[in-house]
Amino acid sequence: MAVKTAGEAPAYTPEQLQSVRETLKSPRRLKIEVLAGLVVALALIPEAIAFSIIAGVDPRLGLFASFTMAVTIAFVGGRPAMISAATGAIALVIAPLVKSHGVDYFIAAVILAGIFQIILGLSGVTKLMRFIPRSVMVGFVNALAILIFMSQVPELLGVPWLVYPLVALALVIVFGLPKLTNVVPAPLVAIVVLTLITVLAAVAVPTVGDKGDLPESLPTLFIPNVPFSLETLQVIFPSALAMAFVGLLESLMTAKLVDDVTDTRSHKTREAWGQGVANIITGFTGGMGGCAMIGQTMINVKASGARTRISTFLAGVFLLILVVVLGGVVSVIPMAALVAVMIFVSWATFDWHSIHPRTLKMMPKSETLVMVATVVVTVATHNLAIGVGVGVLVAMVMFARRVAHFVTVERTVTGVEGHETATYTVNGELFFASSNDLYTQFEYALDPQFVVIDMHASHLWDASTIAALDATTEKYRHHGKDVKIIGLNDASTTMRERLGGKLGAGH
What we know:
- With 507 residues, the protein is α/β, with parallel strands linked by helices.
- The chain has helices spanning 14-17, 20-25, 27-55, 59-76, 88-101, 103-122, 134-152, 163-180, 186-200, 230-262, 268-284, 294-303, 309-324, 327-330, 335-349, 357-362, 365-381, 384-404, 463-478, 490-499; strands at 84-85, 291-292, 408-414, 421-430, 450-460, 482-486.
- It has a four-stranded mixed beta sheet.
- The model is unreliable at 1-9 (pLDDT under 50).
- Residues 424-499 form the STAS domain.
- It comes from Pseudarthrobacter polychromogenes.
- Its main location: membrane.
């Protein structure tokens, strides 16, 4: 339970900090949530517009998606304080369909992707997260930090020289202000200060309004104008499935990252089907769909200190108010301020400890290789799913190689001459990587008439091992010697009885 001492502010546990009820009781915590939602909303606007352009659709689709995703996931999601909206990963996946078949097929694919995510969530796909090693997670975080920074570089090229001192000033604010006070989120201060400077001084620099037109009305019901047929399903199925997997992967890994940052646990299964519900609603309101956003989530959680669903909900509400009601004000915000905020997010997201010389010296080289592979592939492809997939594959190969060396075979000979018995004691886990060399560990020609293979300290995991044992016993019989396998546990015995001698000439 939280403890409150006389004259002190209430002390909240991590779980209470996620509670909407506890937050509503605390004006200080509520203020943090409200201001965090406002900062995230401001940062979402140019991002949503940019991702719409990547997807090849009207900016309104990205802005509407960010509103509906954030508001919906605030109620149905499993990770408090995580921000979901239109994302670059989804834009990249769906862009080819927009180009080839148009917006209506694109929206239909968004809705179908939501249905897939609900099915995947309810079928327990979140359990697969346990197979993603920590080194892949670190690579994922570092790659996203790099991609966030890279996405801001175009905003610094071919721009008036005044952009650079403005960005520098905003960076001083976002990095320096937290050292003085946390009363107001530093990103919000940077946005307000730079906006006042550029407006009052009539400075001509790129603004949010330069990114595209802002919507002037609320989103309405949208029914995609596509034939309800098998042919339509064949067109949208591949894109919808890819969108569902990429969106879930990015959302679940972002949720795990926030779990680590806040020292709390989230409901991954609920988050999975919640993402599906949010995408279905987004599709039927004419939005481009989306998933969790690492950049905006880090602004919300790390930079602004938010911990509850209130900030997520308000981010969506503020976004709609800003673009529909206060579009004229939002359009004059200089991009320099938002660039500085995203650079700060990039810096805060990167796991600097992972590349410290002391860490690299201490960490196994295989772990470092997995992390680097994940970073390189993700940055090169701009595709989280491919990067994480390659990282997991490299981790599996490294693990198999490492475990394969743990298997040992010890030979002892007992008995009197003429009545000797050779006993081989196998120690370790036997699977395809470690059992391939098992066949070569025996002295077939030199062994006496009787041979015992003792397996009490090992376990048979796959058909490769059964085949290796079959090959070994067959080799001894070829030399006219009697071999007996003892010590198999129940699971290994059952597997050998089912597969032994049935794998084709002992292979």
